[in-house]
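Late entry, written up from scratch paper. The run itself happened at the end of the previous shift, but nothing got recorded in the book at the time, so transcribing now.
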Amino acid sequence: MTNFSITKFVPEYLRANPDVRFTARQIAIWIMETHPEAVENKRKKSAARKTPLDTDDAMLQQIVAEIGAQRKGLEGRHAIRTTEGRPRKFFYSDKSELEEVAENAVSDLIGNEQTQGVKHSEHDLYPLFRDYLHNEHQVICKRIDERKSSNNRGSNGNRWLFPDIVGMEDLSQHWDREVIDCAKEYSDKKTKLWSFELKLKVNSTNLRETFFQAVSNSSWANLGYLVAVEFQGSETLGELRLLSGLHGIGVMRFDPEDFSSSEILIPSRERAEIDWGTVNRIVQQNPDFKDYVSLVRQFYQTGNLKPSEWH
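Output as recorded:
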């Protein structure tokens, strides 16, 4: 008789499919299809304990719940890794977290979507993320290319000064004309300025570097976010919440394949005022950022967003 064992079946499946991410539900379906004898044995035991799992759906939900409940044990004793956000995914990899981060950096450097199994480069995310922000958050965005910088810091130095994406949220888009004119007379703001630092992956190896890069790049804005396609590790979000509480940077998970699955994991703490001194510093060193400030100014003067010029 085959005994039912989450700590046996889950590693078995994930090790047979290295680097592939699976939800707990997908793993549970595989277990039910591959180990029917063990599943039936579990069903009989549940009936004896008066906790019947008499339908396949009830059994599936129970297995999903048990996979989630044993996550930390799977991570600690069986080297299984997990992602944060919804839905959580489980996977096995021979690569260290440092190697994964380095692999993504190489993919981004040469702009190859399929380099070493990496589906997207970081640069691939920019237009997709801009579309997501415009459609889901009504934030119109512009890409800031650090390579256009006039300073001599080199690419590594510029990483700590220029955000990847900047945006403007039009608070007045649904206001009556009288309200807009009244707010203008009172010199009240009718926008929020956003700043985003995008990454493919954040794990324990690069967590603090990427977070403080977002802090450095977003110190001028009303709202600043660290954005990644994938957050790995059971402790990652906990540490990010701690850092966010201290520095106010928000955390967002972006799904380039399904915008509706993207989510704000930790809201940014809004700053009431723009740091115009820092804005001036960046404007003097990057033409893309200067264009951004010009577009914001024109919007305040004319009320016209000029979407074709935000790219």
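The chain has two domains: 6-91, 122-309.
(Scratch paper discarded after transcription.)
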